[in-house]
Write a structure and sequence with these properties.
With 554 residues, this protein is α+β, with helices and mostly antiparallel strands. The chain is 46% helix and 20% strand. It is built from 21 helices and 17 strands. The protein has a five-stranded antiparallel beta sheet with strand order 2-1-3-5-4, with helices on both faces. The protein has a five-stranded mixed beta sheet with strand order 13-14-15-16-17, with helices on both faces. Strands 8-9-10 form a three-stranded antiparallel beta sheet, with no helix packed on it. It is globular and about 75 Å long.
Length: 554
């Protein structure tokens, strides 16, 4: 069910400049998105090559893992490709493209990384514009544990192309510094995603060695001395400032070594997975008790020990009853936070981390499905869409008093959001710091596109006959700062003023997104799937508008 979590698949595209010999390498990996989204990312990366000639472009798949894992993958891909070749040789009418596409779709529903990756590579080899020949080599890490198996997609076999492929892979490896932490393959860009948008608080001397570290928002440490270990999501603690931090207290309350006698190493990775587990059980519509929570939590610990972390047994110090009393309280706090109720326990850092680690949710949901199958199925269902009903709501939003129009306009927003798989309307008419939030949504999806919006999404509705002005945007920005959210959907019937648009750009430069949906946008909708497409398009348009903004330099 949960196989090969510790392996990593990366697709690289390398473009070579014949004049300078410079090789530019870009890529996407399975820590950034699910494999089912790889074809879309591959297409996007190809488009970025622009006017480059096909002979100056090389595509590479790399599988990273232990030696034993790599052997499993090699056998898998050879078996599949021999299977396809044999079908072609035995039947001249065999539609191999349809067969491979069918298998690729079929494997999307499963969680075996190697099988999915093998069919994806087979699709790339057989089904695109050219029939590629596979070129391959292996790289072994210095410690002998981590192996990188590289498959290059070349039109013909050339020694120079094989050398070029090796150079491109080595460029990526040097930049990403892949390593095995516990049982999981980790790369720099995955860890460093935690630092995006955080403010630097200050610099402090290291108590466990020479040099300094930067302290950034959320209590994260970045070591500065030469030769220090790679960034590993370390948190400031007692050994750094001789005071117990909130993180130290949270570790004591949530680390299973104290109640279960299980020490997971490295703890930073365990903590990330545990926070995603907590988020998943908080958003699941289950009334948790100590008994039901203990059952799924012990299954989670078993999964972590077998798939993710090294585990050492130690004598427990606290009872499990104390542990689960605290754990249930934390779930209640999370649920209240996700309903936009006031609280002081959770920090902005929690929401940030969830957004950076959403890829783990797929495995956690699979784990929970054994115990709560009905609730997991319900998460992927949406309400029925009828175009006539939706158009009727839009028509009614023009009738009645200003208050009545506002209520119907909120219903329009809710109607749209409740029909997007992966979003769940979690509250209406909520108060935050003496201001009202019309709606809020929580993100329960495993899709990268929806996770661009973050874990908690605010919704503001303005059914005005004039455009929303800059004061509206500044008020939204203030509420988002208080709650620690990164996206608000602004349903403004007439759109926003030019001054408000400029303010939206300034917020976007600080990783805060206000997406404006107008009545004309909604009138263009004819089927349910277009709701999600509309939001994604708005997000990408806003990102493109700030891509080359001079404000980034300031």
């Amino acid at each position: 069910m949960l196989e090969n979590i510790g392996a990593l698949l990366t697709y690289l595209i390398a473009v070579k400049d014949d004049k300078t010999g410079h090789i530019e390498v870009k890529g996407i990996n399975s820590l950034q998105c699910l494999l089912k989204d790889f074809p879309r990312h591959i297409e996007a990366l190809k488009k970025e090559t622009g006017e480059a000639k096909s002979e100056d472009i090389l595509e590479i798949y790399c599988i990273l893992g232990t030696n034993q894992q790599i052997e499993v993958f090699i056998r898998q891909i050879r078996k599949i490709q021999y299977q396809v070749f044999n079908h072609i040789l035995s039947d001249s009418d065999f539609d191999y493209k349809a067969y491979i596409l069918h298998k690729l779709v079929e494997k999307k529903q499963k969680y075996n990384l190697f099988a999915q990756a093998a069919w994806l590579i087979t699709y790339h080899t057989f089904c695109l514009e050219h029939l590629y020949s596979l070129q391959q080599f292996r790289l072994i890490g210095q410690d002998g544990k981590l192996e990188v198996y590289c498959l290059g997609m070349g039109l013909e076999y050339e020694d120079s192309r094989l050398l070029w492929m090796q150079s491109a892979a080595e460029i990526w490896i040097e930049r990403e510094a892949p390593r095995i932490s516990g049982r999981q393959v980790i790369i720099n860009s995955f860890w460093l995603g935690d630092l995006k948008g955080r403010r630097i608080i200050g610099a402090l001397p290291q108590n466990d060695g020479d040099g300094y570290f930067l302290l950034v928002e959320g209590g994260k440490k970045i070591r500065l001395n030469v030769g220090s270990t790679a960034y590993m999501n370390e948190q400031i603690g007692y050994k750094d400032i001789n005071l117990f931090s909130i993180n130290d207290i949270n570790i004591i309350l949530s680390n299973p070594v104290y109640s279960f006698g299980l020490l997971f190493q490295p703890y930073e990775i365990f903590e990330d997975w545990q926070k995603i587990f907590q988020y998943a059980i908080a958003v699941l519509d289950v009334k948790w008790t100590i008994k039901t929570l203990q059952e799924v939590y012990e299954a989670f610990l078993d999964f972590m020990g077998k798939q993710i972390c090294e585990c050492i047994e130690a004598p427990p110090m606290l009872t499990k009853e104390i542990f689960f009393d605290v754990y249930l309280k934390r779930i209640v706090d999370m649920r209240e936070y996700l309903c936009c109720k006031e609280e002081t326990v959770l920090s902005n850092d929690w929401l940030r981390m969830i957004g950076n680690r959403f890829i783990y949710l797929s495995n956690i949901y699979t784990l929970l499905e054994k115990y709560n199958p009905k609730e997991i199925r319900e998460m992927n269902r949406t309400k029925t869409f009828k175009l006539t009903d939706f158009r009727q709501l839009l028509y009614e939003s023009e009738k009645g008093t200003a208050y009545q129009k506002g209520i119907i306009w909120e219903e329009v927003a809710a109607y749209m959001l409740e029909r997007i798989v992966g979003l769940k309307v979690n509250g209406r008419r909520l108060r935050v710091a003496r201001q009202e939030i019309d709606l809020c949504c929580i993100n329960i999806s495993v899709e990268e596109e929806l996770w661009n919006f973050g874990a908690l999404i605010l919704v503001e509705c303005k059914n005005w006959n004039r455009k929303a002005d800059v004061r509206v945007i500044r008020s939204i920005g203030q509420i988002m700062y208080i709650k620690g959210t990164t996206t608000t959907f602004l349903f403004s019937k007439r759109g926003v003023t030019s001054e408000a648009e400029a303010e939206i750009i300034q917020l976007a430069l600080r990783e805060v997104h206000v997406l404006c949906i107008t009545k004309n946008d909604l009138l263009s909708i004819s089927k349910k799937e277009e709701f999600k497409e509309l939001l994604s398009r708005k997000w990408y348009e806003l990102e493109q508008s700030i891509e080359n903004d001079l404000g980034l330099l300031g």
